[in-house]
Design a protein that fits this description.
Layout: H1 2-8, H2 10-17, H3 27-54, H4 60-79, H5 82-88
Helix pairs in contact: 2-5, 3-4
Length: 92
């Protein structure tokens, strides 16, 4: 299942995995990235709830930003290589 998901998410993973050179990776980086992704998706969900209740369309921009950020963090955290996780943290 993971190879199929990696293939589907290749356009997102490729920029992070294409780096050259040394990198510093710690397992805690992956865990923090997954938690950060969940937090961003939670913030997007809460923003969507209040935006729908108030009817103000100005809330769509933060919803989109937080949701896309959370989605990228989750994809790289769960499916990305150690190099991709290190590149997101800019670890060298």
């Amino acid at each position: 299942m993971k190879p199929l998901l990696r293939k589907l998410c290749a356009p997102i993973l490729q920029p992070f995995e294409s780096a050259q050179g040394d990198y510093v990776y710690r397992p805690s980086h992956r865990k923090i990235l997954i938690v950060l992704g969940l937090l961003c998706i939670f913030i997007a969900s809460v923003s969507a709830y209040f935006t729908l209740n108030t009817g103000e369309l100005g809330g769509l921009i933060p919803i989109a930003v937080f949701f896309v950020t959370g989605l990228v963090c989750e994809i790289v955290g769960w499916l990305g290589s150690d190099r991709a996780v290190a590149k997101i943290w800019k670890s060298k």
